[in-house]
Design a protein that fits this description.
mainly alpha; 0% strand
């Protein structure tokens, strides 16, 4: 029974890994970015409302450029 449990854990781990590897970096980035809309911003205190409304998420391309700049500076 113990051997079967180890095999099952191994296959579940491989399955999870494969499901994550199907996402591209861009899809993963975009899916994790907060989505701001007016109805959500209205829930905030007045002094945070304007900041919330004006906040825009970076595009993946902007993120990649900034990331590459940081990598280049370190290297």
């Amino acid at each position: 029974m113990k051997n079967q449990s180890s095999v099952l854990k191994f296959f579940l781990t491989v399955l999870v890994f494969l499901s994550f590897s199907g996402c591209s970096s861009k899809e993963l980035y975009e899916s994790t970015q907060p989505k701001y809309n007016e109805s959500e911003c209205r829930k905030l205190p007045p002094h945070q409302y304007d900041e919330c409304i004006n906040q825009e998420a970076k595009t993946y391309e902007e993120y990649q450029r900034e990331r590459q700049d940081i990598i280049d500076k370190k290297g």
